[in-house]
Amino acid sequence: MTVATTALRGTPPDLDDTFAALADPTRRAILERLMEGEASVAELTEPFDISQPAISKHLKYLERAGLVSRHRDAQRRMCRLEAAPMAEAVAWLEQYRRYWEANFRRLDALLDRMKAGEAAGAGGPSTGVAAAGDASDVADRDGHGRLDGSDE
Amino acid sequence: MTLADTFTVTQPSDTEVLISREFDAPARLVWDAYTKPELVKQWLLGPDGWDMPVCNIDLREGGTYEYRWSHPTEGSFGSTGEFLEVEPVTKIVSTERMEGFDGQSHVVITLREQGEHTVFDMLQRFDSKEARDGAVATGMADGVATSYDRLEGVLATLK
Questions:
Q1: Confidence of residue A127 (pLDDT cuts 50, 70, 90)
Q2: Class of B3-158 per CATH?
């Protein structure tokens, strides 16, 4: 889990337990399974190609992070998802995704304008800037077009 | 499959987030869009309603940049950083500090041409929880609600 991190520069501290828990694919898979309902350790181990002790270790990790709780149901120890601590981490990821999604949609449009400007213009390093200028002219004309339309 | 479908967010570790997206343009245009202030101002805005009155970029190793965004009701917000590595049309490594949040992040951008498309990867590593919070500061007004469906969706996209 920390391989990619150490490759960058040293080993940074864990920012928090929730993100650390989510950063591992097996633990994410366990959490996904628990979203369908409670499960015993044996049931959780079944779909994975790893041993029950290894799953138990992941469960202890998730328990420490407050993401999973355990209780007895008849003869079995059942695991249950505690979703609340995950909410903050998930909200962050969702914000991050939305932030960049919005940026990239605008970047798509900008790149289209730059390509159009390059095709129309003489080329060269400043073409992109000229294209962007042209594009805002186009946007203005579109604006007038819509206004004219609504007058009719 | 549209270009928007090529967008992925993954979490290589608990301190890193990797986003990847394809663009229908050669790498040199994506590079320009990412490094020329008059172009950056047109798209690096975050949620709707924000604009970017300040964008200074001194693109060289050891050079710095300064971004400032403003919103009619949310106020203004800035970030600054230093370029640690600049390989034209291929790679930029920089730091990023968000105003009002302690700590910083390291950002590695790579561009890779694939046919007529360019794959844009951005790996961001946060040194502190505050720096991580700062990375979505302008998006906070969105008020993302959390539901089981959303949890499931996010877990699925992290794969």
A1: very low
A2: alpha beta
Average pLDDT of every residue of chain B? 88
Q: Chain A within 8 Å of B147 (Cβ-Cβ)?
A: no
Query: Which of A41-45, B76-80, B129-133 bottoms out in mean pLDDT, i.e. has the lowest?
Result: B129-133
- Nearest by CB to A94, from B11, B123, B150: name it: B150
Residue B152 is predicted with a pLDDT of 65
Q: Is residue A14 part of a domain?
A: yes
ipTM score = 0.88
A83 or B118: whose pLDDT is higher? B118
The answer, yes or no, to whether residue B121 has pLDDT greater than 70, is: yes
Q: Cα(B157)–Cα(A107) distance, rounded to whole angstroms? A: 22
Q: Residue B157 has what pLDDT?
A: 63
Beta pairing partners, B77: B69
Q: What range does the domain containing A125 cover?
A: 85-138
Question: Are the Cβ atoms of A103 and B3 closer than 8 angstroms?
Answer: no
Q: Any CB–CB contact under 8 A between B1 and chain A?
A: no
Domain limits of chain B? 3-158
Decide if B7 and A100 are in contact by the 8 Å CB cutoff.
yes
List the CATH number of the domain containing A20: 1.10.10.10
Å between A152 CA and nearest CA of chain B: 30
The Cβ of residue B8 has, within 10 Å, a number of other Cβ atoms equal to 14
Buried b or exposed e, range B61-92, using 16+ CB within 10 angstroms: eeeebebbbbbeeeeebebbbbbbebeeeeeb
B30/A100 Cβ within 8 A: no
Chain B neighbors of A132, CB-CB under 8 A: 38-39, 42
Instruction: Clarify whether residues A19 and A36 are in a common domain.
Output: yes
Please give the model's pTM, rounded to 2 decimal places: 0.72
| Domain-embedded: residue A147 | no
Which residues of A fall within a CB distance of 8 Å from B132?
15, 92
Contact B39 A99 (CB under 8 A): no
Instruction: Give the Cα-Cα-Cα angle B93, B86, B5 (nearest 5 degrees).
Output: 60
